[in-house]
Amino acid sequence: MKQQESANVLWYREQMNIRIKRFDPTLPLPEYKTEGAVAFDLAARIEVTIEAGKVGYVPLNVAIRPPDGHMLLLAARSSLHKRGVMLANGVGIGDEDFSGNTDEYHAALFNFSDLVVTIKRGDRIAQGMFVPIVRGGWNEVDDMGFPDRGGFGTTGNT
Predict the structure, then answer these.
(1) Is residue 9 in some structural domain?
(2) Lowest-pLDDT range, 6-15, 44-53, 75-84?
(3) What's the total number of domains in the chain?
């Protein structure tokens, strides 16, 4: 376990042993590109062409078993929008039990441009990170016990 201090907050970086299956072993395993990266890059397994205003499904070449008590969060790489596409569902959530031999992760990409967009084999388009999860139990009440704050855009307004 590696200990680091950042902005007076002590945090630890652990290396977890993750079960992963590649569908095309000629493409590299996902990788953290820098020492400080919190997410690993995921690449397209095949070339996918997405018409303007449509959604295309890009296979990411991996089945991954998140560690017990964790989920896999899939997000767009920060430069993805420059290509005229974005994740159609905002983010992807990979459950622990989505980890069978044919459970390949995909990126659902929405082409918001007026042009046809082609994602080439090997293009890094998404990133993944393991996030600890906590499941809640519901305690239904008639009164939340806190004052109302208002709707969207009301934070900090008096």
Answers:
(1) no
(2) 6-15
(3) 1
Q: Is 45 helix (H, G, I), strand (E, B) or coil?
A: coil
What pTM was estimated for this model as a whole? Answer: 0.84
What is the domain range of residue 105? 18-132
Q: How far is the C-alpha of 18 from the C-alpha of 107, rounded, in Å?
A: 20
Confirm whether 2 is domain-assigned: no
CATH of the domain at 122: 2.70.40.10
Scan for tokens 């997405």, then name that residue. 50
For residue 83, the Cα-to-chain-centroid distance in whole angstroms is: 18
Query: Which pair of tokens denotes residue 123?
Result: 């293009």
Distance of CA 117 to the CA centre of its chain: 21
pLDDT digits (tens, 9 = 90+) for 58-97: 999 999 999 999 999 999 999 999 999 999 999 999 999 9
